[in-house]
Specification:
The complex is a heterotrimer of chains A (802), B (290) and C (165). Chain B has 290 residues and is of the alpha+beta class. In chain B, 33% of the residues lie in helices and 24% in strands. Chain C starts with a strand and ends with a helix. In chain C, helix 2 packs across helix 5. The chains are: A alpha+beta (802), B alpha+beta (290), C alpha+beta (165).
């Protein structure tokens, strides 16, 4: 059906066969694959769940951070004397009172200080902190600190950050270049020469923010030389590591505990001023110090999504087969690196996953600006490029008169292939996702046949199931787990460093532990995310926990099962291979009358041998190529998704009503279907918000204009479309039981999907996010003018007012 | 966040309340539902020395209809009380619908009609429909009261005719009228919890297909809610047609001066005024309820 | 009501209110907000703070049966009122049908919006036992959720309504 690829170019993806075990024929699972209720559901519906801000400690103080009102300024003096006099103020600190070791979550770019020493670099940068007897006194104390600034010119436009005459933000990074990337695979120039059609498009993304419902909070407590930090964190380990480093403490003397977290979405992966300043204030006062950000401070602290300026050039055959792609991007990193180096690499890395092309060039500059720092937000650098590429592909499809879904089928990646940037893709049901999306959405009956103002669009996405390499260079396994069976076997406790921030990892890991042991989920207990009591795990990011933490949990459960069946074998005088265990019942495989309970065998084990425990750990294999930046984007496995959306546009006002969204996911074996679909709903919801409503806006001096949940518009329950979440059967050989990720995958296709539906409805392309009604309105007017229609000019009418 | 310190009073009568205002001076404020004033206080925009709470003035919560005065709504009636009131739904359904468009359910359970008017932001949702229906407010002072048409109540951004040191807004009255249809259309950037980018209210008195009378009021597009008198004049005495309504819409754009801000550009708002004026008129004319 | 001034002249007031069926008479400053009285004064931390400006609904409580944002209610204004917080929904340790429906319908992820959602929904079902889907969405439109896209929450509320059909 498709044209042969021109000679001289690599014609198809390299293939790869994973050495792991094939898909089991019998998948009669007892615990996984079931929609078990969340293990923490009762605590959450009754209000018993205590989040970090809900914790109280005897003698506790409250702390807050003073921030800069200027985008870029030199600190001339700080006078804390008036603040210190206020009754109830117990400590006031500035850079003189804290370690000046630079920190950051990206090891290659330690560019932050606990408090600014010479210059402040964005409105919201940290200058000082106070500890007081209550919240109100903190706010008053901050107001009483007098800082003299010399205002400096600021870099507020990322497109001019690299100009020769732009103000320099970090002296170590000339031209404000934080990260510069040039990757080249195959021969893009030759691909363009041989292509039947080459097209270039330019798209601009939006600066958005995770806006979790729970604000950052951290409470620090010292006992002698040991620091305990309760924090709203996605990774107790990274917090522990970086706090220990900053204060020169052994890791063993820093305990980080996660209680309940009200959402993170990437913004709570790195320690903030609350942890660092809180630790110092707690040390100085000798009392627990609880520090928190209010909503406006959350927006200023940020670490949200980078705005990207994306130029894409693609060469295709006459039948739409992609031969080569050049992605040339600039991203606004804000004042510090945060996770931004990885973000910059991810932006380009993920583009090669859903469609198969061998020639690819990626150029990127992540620049510093005097705006709040950007980091990792759900999808980590990949959603905006995905929007751009999906829009770009629809433009190409239109130019070549090929159905947008069909062009994607022609280019869809196949399983067991290697991408040009050296990512190994085992399972991949991209074709099945697209076909099912086409079927359940009624694409064939709708495309080109909808009434005026309605449109249907499609997009794809793919994401990592855990990063192949951790954030800092280490040989530590990525996950470890322990299971302790109770002495009488009536419960089993899973100890894991994995971090449940709402996505449900505690629940699915308990299901996996029970499945591996042959136990019941209902009897599982869990202790998680406490660096002193739970084994190491890198935490919740890059959608890693189901696969990586799950692999460690499975290993631990398998070890328990093995010991248990050996014990049971002794009790019934059979070799353990002749026994099976399921849902707490052990029986002989060929004689169902020989049976005993898990509890009986476990108790006997304890009496004879001591604690019945299992241990497991997981490290991914060595992944990736040898080019610069090769590690970023590597993963043991990749999820795939196709989304179709149907929209209705008010042709006068530009309002876009999304009627339905169909999401079809390939995420391997499903551990908990209800929680999985819930994650799809949530990821899609965030993609929706970023597509139409969300944008952080700044005034001319770099101050956020909309740091509230009233003006930074998250979709409400009334704004949502009908969501149809569906799966294709899939098995991932690199994941325990064949699992892959789902937490971030559904955010990726959404923005491109809506843009394409609008394009289908009105023939207009909105080339920047968010796709606001005003932008659609403006594009419609341009189109009508270009068609020679008479457009009434609202600025030119007679004015009756003064 | 925190609130600055203030003295608090909860008078038991209107006389006591106005007396307190006189006594406390210009930095005292009246507290009704608190949804506007507490936000301003938390944001550092306001630090009153005293708050005079109206919560014990139960007579200000009543919603009544009588044939002479019309619909009298106590200033402390909350937006949800107005929305859900059988009397309001029967007499002026468009007001019930308008009240439902404010903010969200929790805010509507506390926010009051009095507070919405005295807060006087240009994008407030109740003023346009009240003006289209010819409503007036009663302002009670220590010794006397006066009435002011809602149409002339607003004097600037966040400014109104009420004298805060001596007066309390006690009721909003919509007089009996021959209006055959009215409506309020709010264009916000999401379907809940959004300020109006543009708001248009229209009230018509039809005689068959002839427009005997019409009142159009625009919100969020000028420093105060504003009547689109020239647009009304396009229609009065005429038989309505879609083209005529479009013409009225275009004319209405001349009755506003919207600004460009983070919610929309002036140009977009003007075009929305055209569109929604036309749509509000059409709905008021064809839907058959007030 | 009674006011006493401290050494700095800052007035404190005694109020009386009922919270989850228990009567309290706390002494508070005028600028105490209901949300802080509940969380700090009465240690009922189920009511959350998400924005403190009435935009997110995390602090929703029932005040004389009506859902309000506790961050925008002075404790003084709650004098004489009956407040229900999330801690008062389950009775004698028995979850109410809404709570069970939230669990059964996987309507909880991070859980931070859950208390407010349940109270908004509870008030809805009390006055409208068989709401339509748009009515459910309108009732919870003032409760922002960042995790669920509201899909399972709406389903949970409709399912709980069915129980009494």
């Amino acid at each position: 059906m498709s044209q042969p690829t021109p000679a001289g170019l690599k014609s198809s993806a390299r293939t790869y066969t994973h050495p792991g075990l094939p898909e089991p024929a019998d998948k009669d699972y007892a615990v996984i694959g079931k929609s078990k209720p969340k293990i923490d559901a009762r605590e959450k519906v009754t209000g018993q769940a205590r989040y970090t801000a809900d914790l109280k400690f005897p003698n506790m103080l409250y702390g807050k951070i003073l921030t800069s009102p200027h985008a870029h300024a030199r600190i001339l003096s700080i006078d804390t004397s008036e603040a210190e006099k206020i009754p109830g103020v117990k400590a006031v600190i500035t850079h003189k009172d804290v370690p000046t070791l630079k920190y950051g979550i990206s090891p290659a770019r330690w560019d932050e200080n606990i408090f600014c020493i010479e210059t402040v670099k964005f409105v919201g940068d940290k200058v000082a902190a106070v500890a007081c007897i209550d919240e109100e006194t903190c706010y008053k104390a901050l107001k009483a600190i007098k800082v003299e600034y010399e205002v400096l010119p600021a870099v507020l436009d990322p497109l001019h950050a690299m100009d020769e005459d732009a103000p320099q933000i970090h002296p170590e990074y000339p031209l404000n270049k934080n990260t510069e990337i040039h990757q080249n695979f195959g021969d893009v120039d030759e691909a363009f020469r041989q292509a039947d059609y080459v097209r270039t498009d330019m798209f601009v993304g939006n600066r958005t923010y995770q806006a979790p419902m729970e604000p950052h909070t951290a409470t620090s407590i010292w006992q002698g030389g040991k620091l305990t930090v309760y924090s709203s964190t996605q990774s107790p380990h990274y917090f522990q590591y970086y706090i220990a480093r900053e204060f020169g403490l052994p890791m063993g003397d820093v305990r980080v505990i996660k209680t309940y977290v009200g959402g993170g979405f990437g913004g709570k992966l790195e320690p903030t001023g609350l942890e660092f300043a809180g630790a110092v204030l707690a040390r100085l006062t000798g009392r627990p110090v609880k520090m928190f950000y209010d909503r406006a401070e959350m927006f200023a602290h940020n670490r949200g999504r980078h705005r990207q300026y994306m130029k894409l050039t693609t060469g295709v055959n006459a039948d739409g087969r992609i031969l080569g792609v050049h992605a040339d991007f600039i991203m606004d990193g804000g004042a510090y690196t945060s996770l931004g180096i990885a973000t910059a690499y991810y932006a380009g890395a993920m583009l090669t996953l859903t469609y198969d092309f061998e020639n690819y060039r990626f150029d990127m500059n992540r620049v510093y600006t005097n705006l709040p720092a950007c980091g990792a937000q759900r999808g980590h650098g990949a959603p905006q490029p995905r929007y751009a590429f999906e829009a770009h592909l629809d433009n190409i499809a239109k130019d070549l008169d090929i159905d947008p879904l069909e062009i994607r089928l022609r280019n869809a990646r196949k399983p067991n292939t290697i991408t040009p940037n050296e990512f190994v893709v085992n399972s991949c049901e991209m074709v099945a996702c697209l076909e099912q999306a086409r079927d359940i959405s009624g694409w064939a009956d709708k495309k080109g046949k909808l009434p005026a103002g309605r449109g249907i669009g499609v997009a794809t996405g793919s994401f990592v199931s855990g990063a192949g390499y951790p954030i800092y260079r280490t040989d530590l396994p990525h996950a470890a787990a322990m299971i302790k069976v109770a002495e009488d076997g009536t419960a089993a406790t899973l100890y894991t460093g994995a971090t449940d921030i709402g996505q449900g990892s505690d629940t699915v890991l308990c299901q996996m532990a029970a499945e591996a042991m042959g136990y019941t989920y209902e009897q599982m207990k869990i202790v998680a995310a406490d660096t002193e009591t739970t084994p190491h795990d890198f935490g919740a990011y890059a959608s890693r926990q189901t696969l990586m933490s799950g692999a460690a949990v499975k290993e631990a459960g398998d070890e328990v099962r093995k010991q248990l069946l050996e014990m049971a074998g002794e009790m019934v005088d059979l070799p353990p291979e002749r026994l099976s265990v399921r849902l707490g019942r052990i029986s002989a495989k060929d004689n169902p009358e020989i049976t005993l309970t898990f509890e009986e065998a476990a108790r006997t084990f304890f009496v004879q041998k001591g604690p019945l425990m299992g241990r497991g750990s997981y490290a991914p294999p060595k992944l990736g190529g040898k080019h610069k930046g090769a590690p970023v984007g590597t993963s043991p496995a990749y999820s795939f998704a196709a989304q179709v959306s149907e929209v209705e546009i008010d042709e006068e006002t530009g309002e876009v009503a999304v009627l339905d969204v169909w999401d079809v996911h390939d995420c391997g074996q499903v551990i908990n279907p209800a929680l999985l679909h819930a994650q799809v709903h949530g990821a899609l919801y965030m993609g929706m918000g970023e597509s139409i409503w969300e944008e952080v806006r700044f005034d001319a001096k770099g101050k956020i204009q909309n740091p509230t949940l009233g003006e930074y518009r998250l979709p409400t329950a009334l704004d949502m479309p009908r969501i149809h979440s569906s799966l294709v059967p899939s098995y991932e050989i690199a994941g325990p039981w064949g699992v892959k990720e789902v937490g971030e995958g559904a955010t990726l296709p959404t923005m491109g999907c809506f843009r394409n539906a609008i394009f289908d409805a009105m023939g207009i392309s909105v080339n920047s996010l968010p796709l606001t009604p005003e932008k659609v309105w403006a594009a419609l007017r341009e189109k009508r003018k270009a068609n020679g229609e008479d457009i009434w000019d609202p600025m030119a009418c007679e004015c009756f007012l003064e | 966040m925190y609130l600055p310190d203030f003295d608090y009073y909860a008078p038991e009568s209107l006389t006591e309340a106005t007396g307190l205002l006189m006594q406390l001076g210009p930095s005292a404020r009246v507290l009704a539902g608190g949804t506007d004033i507490l936000v301003k206080m938390k944001s550092g925009l306001l630090a009153p020395s005293a708050l005079v709470s109206l919560k014990n003035l139960h007579e200000l919560r009543r919603i009544r209809w009588d044939a002479d005065r019309g619909l009298a709504i106590g200033a402390l009636a909350t937006h949800n009380e107005i929305c859900n009131s059988a009397v309001v739904q029967e007499r002026f359904l468009s007001l019930s619908e308008a009240a439902h468009k404010l903010a969200n359910n929790q805010i509507r359970n506390r926010g009051t009609i009095g507070g919405n008017l005295v807060n006087a932001i240009p994008s407030a949702d109740l003023p346009p429909i009240l003006i289209a229906l010819g409503a007036y407010v009663t302002l009670a002072g220590p010794n006397s009261s006066r009435t002011v048409p809602v149409e002339s109540f607003f004097t600037g951004v966040s400014r109104c005719a009420l004298e805060p040191e001596r007066e309390i807004l006690t009721e909003v009255v919509i007089p009996p009228q021959k209006t055959t249809g009215s409506t309020y259309i709010k264009f916000g950037l999401r379907r809940s919890g959004a300020l109006a980018v543009v708001g248009v209210a229209a009230a018509v008195t039809m005689d068959g297909n002839v427009v005997r009378d019409v009142r159009i009021c625009l919100g969020a597009v000028y420093k105060v809610p504003t009547r689109a008198i020239q647009a009304e004049q396009v229609l009065i005495g005429k038989t309505w047609t879609n083209d005529l309504l479009e013409q009225a819409g275009r004319t209405a754009v001349g009755c506003c001066l919207p600004i460009s801000d983070i919610r929309g550009s002036a140009e977009y708002r003007r075009d929305l005024v055209r569109i929604f004026t036309r749509r509000a008129l059409k709905r008021a004319i064809t839907q058959g309820h007030v | 009501m009674q006011a006493i001034a401290d050494k700095q002249g800052v007035k404190r007031y005694i109020i009386s209110l009922t919270v989850n069926g228990d009567e309290y008479s706390p002494v508070i400053k005028g600028n105490t907000l209901l949300v802080n009285l509940l969380r700090d004064g009465l240690d009922l931390t189920g009511t959350k703070k998400g924005c403190e400006l009435g935009d997110c609904g995390s602090c929703t409580v029932l005040m004389d049966g009506k859902p309000v944002d506790a961050c925008l209610v002075l404790a003084l204004e709650a004098d004489g009122c009956e407040i229900i917080t999330i801690e008062g929904v389950a009775q004698h340790g028995e979850l109410d049908r809404l709570q069970r429906s939230f669990i059964d319908n996987a309507a909880i992820q991070c859980g931070y919006c859950t208390p407010g959602m349940i109270l908004s929904a509870k008030a809805l079902l009390a006055r409208n036992p068989h709401p339509t889907e748009p009515e459910v969405r309108a009732a919870i439109a003032g409760n922002l959720c960042r995790c669920t896209g509201y899909v399972n929450i709406v389903k949970a509320v409709l399912d709980a309504a069915e129980v009494t059909a």
